[in-house]
Write a structure and sequence with these properties.
Blueprint: E1 43-46, E2 49-55, E3 60-62, E4 69-73, E5 76-80, E6 85-87, E7 90-94, H1 95-101, E8 105-109, E9 114-119, E10 122-127, E11 132-135, E12 138-141, E13 147-149, E14 152-156, H2 157-164, E15 167-171, E16 174-178, E17 182-185, H3 193-199, E18 204-210, E19 213-219, E20 229-238, E21 241-249, E22 263-268, E23 274-278, E24 282-292, E25 295-301, E26 312-317, E27 321-323, E28 335-339, E29 349-352, E30 355-360, E31 366-377, E32 381-387, E33 396-401, E34 417-422, E35 432-433, E36 437-441
Parallel strand pairs: 4-16, 21-23, 26-29, 27-30, 33-35
Antiparallel strand pairs: 1-2, 2-3, 4-5, 6-7, 7-14, 8-9, 9-10, 10-11, 11-12, 13-14, 15-16, 17-22, 18-19, 19-22, 20-21, 24-25, 24-28, 25-26, 28-30, 31-32, 31-34, 32-33, 34-36
Length: 442
C-alpha cells in the first residue's frame, strides 16, 4: 500500500501470549518460550553473510540489521524505540509505543482479557484471546493475528490504523501519522493521467480533487540530470492544509546530462485546499550577529569550521517567519535552518532569508542589563563597563571583538542601557565576559 524499507524480522508467538504485553500484576502468568541468547541463535548464510534467525517450526522469521525509525505527527517527532517487523511482506508496528506516542491511554482489563484504548472521544477495545476488536462501539475483526515479541504486541499496518483511528505513511525509515491517509505514489493513476502530464513540467505545487480524494503534485526546479529522489522528513495534515518537508537526493550516477524536473505525487484520502512546502536549504550555527532597525544580520558557520566557503551571511526582516522559536533566540551558538531562493557568489555567500527554523539554542548562564559607564578600546577589542546600581560589586565588563558584527553597536554608548547574554564569565571583580548577544536601547 505504501513505500516500504528493509526491516527487522522477528519471531511470531502464539495468540495466547498477547496478554503479556499489557497484563499488570493481576493478570494470569503466561509461560513464554525460553529466550534465545546470541550464542544460541542459529545462522543462515546469504551471499556469505551470516544472518541470525529466530524461528518456530512452521513460521521462520529472519532478523536483519536493526534500522532506526522516526515518527512524525502534529509538528512533533521522535525515534521509535521498538523497531518495526516485516512478516510475509506485511508490516507490524508496536501497538503500545505508537498509541502512547499519539497520546492514547491503554488499560488492561484482566476480567475479559482485553485492552481499552482511549483518546478524547475515541475509544477502542482489543481482545487478547481472539481477533475481535471494537471502535466507538462498532465491532470488527483484525485482518492479521498480532505478534508478541519479548512481551510487546505488534499489529499489522491496517489493524493498528483501524484500532487507533489514524493512518500511517512509511517512507524509508520515517513514519508519518495523520488523521487522513497519505500515500506516496510510485506512478500515475488512470484518473489523473492527463492532469499529471499537463502539470509535471511546471515547478510548484498542484492539487486535483476527485470524489473527496486529493492528488498533490510537487514539482522541483529543473536539474541537469534525472533520477533525483524525494526524501520526505515531514508529511502533516492540518484541516485542509498539507504540509510537507523534504530533501532531494541526487542519483548515484550524475554523468548523464538530461534536463529534468523532479516531482513527487501524493494521494490524500481527504480534500486538500493548500500545500505548504518547508524546504530548508542550509543549516548553520550563529557565530556573529547584529541587530538593526529593520531586522538583523546573522553570520552562520556551516559544517566545516575551517572553510568560510561553507558559511552564510543571512539578512532577516522584522516580519520573518520563525518556526520553533522567535528572534529572541538569535544569539551566538544558536543552530538555525534557513530557507532562501538566491544567494550571492561571494565567499561567504549572502542571502535574504525567506523562512527560519530554530533547531537549538545555547544554555544562557545569565542575562545582564545595565547602563554604560565607560568604553575603552585596544587594537583587538572594545571593553564596556556596565553598571546596574551604585554597588560596584554588581558591575560587568563586556568585551566586543573588533571586526565582528557586534562592533556596529559601539557608537554613542554613553549613558545608554545595554542588555547582554553570556554563558561564562571570569571570577574577577567586576566579572568580565564576551557576550553571545548584545542589544543597545537607542
Amino acid at each position: 500500500m505504501k513505500k516500504r524499507a528493509a526491516l527487522i524480522i522477528l519471531s511470531v508467538l502464539c495468540m495466547a501470549n498477547i496478554g503479556v504485553a499489557f497484563a499488570g500484576s493481576d493478570a494470569e502468568p503466561i509461560q513464554l518460550p525460553a529466550v534465545y541468547t546470541e550464542t544460541a541463535i542459529p545462522s543462515l548464510y546469504n551471499e556469505a553473510e551470516p544472518v541470525p534467525v529466530l524461528y518456530t517450526e512452521e513460521n521462520p522469521l529472519l532478523i536483519s540489521e536493526k534500522p532506526e525509525f522516526k515518527w512524525n505527527s502534529e509538528g512533533k517527532s521522535g525515534v521509535i524505540e521498538n523497531s518495526l517487523i516485516r512478516k510475509n511482506n506485511s508490516m507490524y508496528f508496536p501497538l503500545r509505543e505508537i498509541a502512547e506516542t499519539m497520546g492514547f491511554s491503554l488499560k488492561w482489563n484482566s476480567v475479559n482479557r482485553s485492552v481499552d484504548i482511549a483518546k478524547n472521544d475515541f475509544v477502542s477495545k482489543m481482545h487478547i484471546d481472539n481477533t475481535d476488536f471494537s471502535v466507538n462501539g462498532s465491532f470488527e475483526k483484525l485482518n492479521s493475528n498480532p505478534l508478541v515479541v519479548e512481551g510487546r504486541t505488534y499489529l499489522s499496518e491496517t489493524d493498528i490504523e483501524n484500532i487507533l483511528g489514524l493512518f500511517i505513511t512509511l517512507d524509508e525509515t520515517d513514519l508519518f501519522l495523520n488523521a487522513s491517509d497519505v500515500e506516496i505514489l510510485e506512478g500515475s493513476e488512470k484518473a489523473i493521467k492527463d492532469w499529471l502530464g499537463k502539470n509535471k513540467e511546471t515547478s510548484g505545487t498542484h492539487i486535483k480533487t476527485i470524489n473527496g480524494i486529493s492528488y498533490v503534485l510537487i514539482v522541483e526546479e529543473e536539474k541537469n540530470t534525472g533520477g533525483y529522489a524525494f526524501n520526505f522528513s515531514n508529511i502533516e495534515i492540518d484541516g485542509g492544509v498539507l504540509r510537507v518537508e523534504y530533501s532531494l537526493n541526487p542519483p548515484a550516477d550524475m554523468a548523464t546530462q538530461a534536463l529534468a524536473k523532479p516531482y513527487a505525487l501524493l494521494k490524500v484520502s481527504s480534500e486538500i485546499s493548500e500545500v505548504k512546502v518547508d524546504h530548508y536549504n542550509y543549516t548553520g550555527t550563529i557565530s556573529d550577529l547584529k541587530f538593526e532597525e529593520h531586522g538583523a544580520t546573522l553570520y552562520l558557520e556551516g559544517g566545516n569550521l575551517e572553510e568560510r566557503i561553507d558559511d552564510l551571511v543571512v539578512r532577516v526582516g522584522m516580519d520573518m517567519i520563525i518556526e520553533d522559536g522567535t528572534a529572541k533566540d538569535f544569539k551566538i551558538g544558536t543552530v538555525l535552518d534557513i530557507q532562501y531562493s538566491f544567494s550571492t557568489k561571494s565567499i561567504p555567500a549572502q542571502t535574504n532569508a525567506e523562512k527560519i527554523r530554530v533547531i537549538e539554542t545555547p544554555e544562557i548562564f545569565s542575562t545582564y542589563t545595565g547602563a554604560v559607564k565607560e568604553v575603552t578600546e585596544n587594537d583587538k577589542s572594545f571593553s564596556i563597563l556596565l553598571s546596574k546600581d551604585e554597588n560596584h560589586m554588581n558591575d560587568l565588563i563586556v568585551h566586543i571583538k573588533k571586526g565582528s558584527y557586534m562592533e556596529s553597536e559601539m557608537y554613542e554608548l554613553d549613558g545608554k542601557t545595554v542588555t547582554v547574554e553570556y554563558t561564562i564569565c571570569t571570577m574577577s571583580l567586576p566579572p568580565q565576559t564576551s557576550p553571545i548577544k548584545i542589544q543597545v536601547e537607542r
